[in-house]
Amino acid sequence: MSEVELAAIAKSFGETEVIPPLDLRVPDGEFCVFVGPSGCGKSTLLRMIAGLEEPSAGQVRIGGRDVTREDPSDRGLAMVFQSYALYPHMTVAQNMEFGLEMAGMPREARRAEVEKAARLLKLDRFLDRKPRALSGGQRQRVAIGRAIVRQPGVFLFDEPLSNLDAELRVEMRLELARIHRQVGATMIYVTHDQVEAMTMADRIVVLREGRIEQQGPPERLYADPDTLFVAGFLGAPRMNLTPCAVTGCEGGRALVDVPALGITGLAVPLRDPAAPPPRSAILGLRPEAFAPAGQGRAATLKAEVVENTGAARYLYTATDRAIALVAEIPRGQSIGTGETLEVGVAAEDCLLFASEGPRL
Q1: Confidence (pLDDT) at 77
Q2: The whole model's pTM is what?
Q3: CA dist., res. 206 & res. 327, Å (int)
Q4: Segments of the chain scoring below 50 in pLDDT
Q5: Predicted pLDDT of residue 322
């Protein structure tokens, strides 16, 4: 068993508390992603699991065993860093087997482990090459292979794809997902890239200022965020979040006026109908959730900017990000800068948040 458990784990640097007491359990075999903006504590949390940072309080348990004060080498885990950290004078095979050699494993057994990992990572043709003769993606695979040959119960990844270009990042995301299925080990992955988190994770842990803002499967966090922060952080483009006025409640719904959409009396479902919402709130609506004209409540959006990503096109109503609304343009519909798009807004697709953050 390679379950990872953090019990009231905390970290302070001097008088500065960066991670207040925090509890988290990562089940055996799960691919868990820590995601959040810079400075949210995700790398510090990972380093405490690895034993590279000493907690100020609390316990780290791996497989039910308290490893809080144990050396990193005794914790039964392997870590892959942002930098490849390969030995330039060694071949791929030598880089991958170096840790096993230091551990005293016989040469034939080392070679067998390296060849098995190389086949898994599609590196078997490159075992005699040195790092300078490899692409960035291949070097990162070598770093991952160096971890795999140790057969750890837990893999830790600290933003391992951030040095790669966009195409290689996509390729390596697929590779890591495939490796997880085949190896079956517990994997904890740190990134600030919410696309990486959404595409790879069994479970996402969203961190903010050292605290867990929300955790759960990617699809649930995307569709059912608990807070304004999670709603705005997950999604590219981000969720539309615009001020609205609550004018009343009716049948478990809040009646809201949304100035940015020119809509009044929109009946938005409440998560807790028993709790009366405040007079001022924030309405959330995903860019792809705008309905075709004629469905739901009518709204008109004027295109200040049209963004073409290839797979989709997006209309931005203003260049000031604080007030911009974003809508996905339906396929086959042509629209240019300065033109308008007629859309529908369905109340069931809208979310309501308090101005201070919690979902209403």
Answers
A1: 93
A2: 0.91
A3: 25
A4: none
A5: 56
